[in-house]
Amino acid sequence: MAVIVFDIETIPDVAGIRALNELPDELSDYEVAEFAFQQRRVASGSDFLPHHLHRVVTISCAMRDARQFRVFSLSEPDTGEGQIIQRFFDGVERFTPQLVSWNGGGFDLPVLHYRGMLHGVGAPRYWDQGEGDYADSRDFKWNGYISRYHSRHLDLMDLLALYQPRANAPLDQLARLYGYPGKVGMDGSLVWQAFQDGRIGEIRDYCETDVVNTYLVYLRFQRMRGQLDAAGLAAEEQVVREALAAIDAPHWQEFLAAWPEK
Known about the structure:
Layout (H helix, E strand, L loop, with lengths): L2 E10 L1 H7 L8 H16 L9 E11 L4 E7 L5 H15 L2 E4 L2 H15 L5 H4 L25 E3 H5 L10 H7 L13 H6 L3 H25 L5 H16 L4 H8 L5
Parallel strand pairs: 1-4, 4-5
Antiparallel strand pairs: 1-2, 2-3
Helix pairs in contact: 1-2, 3-4, 7-9, 9-10
């Protein structure tokens, strides 16, 4: 079974915020977003917007199958939000992969649900709970992508914390604790400003490094649960190194420089 680690990057849904609050067209996108942030601060003390008001600008994936390890992104400006989300679920339809995320159950997937519905996205395989038209649909009643405790989608953050939010660990810190690079280039709080500045490529690159960090932590988890031995872990890490070294891109050069071989 292919493994796909995924992560999304989002910005405020300016058009949605504008429509829901009947804001005048004269307000800039920045002003509309600030209006929403201020509303949220008053309501909750945080400017983190509700899931349905996050617009997806990038989905990055690290995919490992029997042949190779590769990293790719579905991203603006080449693709619009609806197409980005549809292509992600098309991948689930095609490969029926093991999905792995870091807080995907708490953020990424709910956002993809709300935004996918907005754009008329189809995802029958993903939503299969045993009633689908697939040959193995019956299996999905007991192990699908939807239930928190099924394994076709593994929210690694949630599982490692034993579903206790107070035990959650930051991916960046955990990755660096295990000897991996951690965040490279930016963090999630800088994505909105980067988007306004037209730095879409930097957002994509940052998202890609996050999924590779997540994949490397996943390999550690596979070692702990007995799916890899020490030699197998080292071999899989080397597969990742070689795949990234073959990509002529500055963010992977920076990533590898922060991950020296022992």
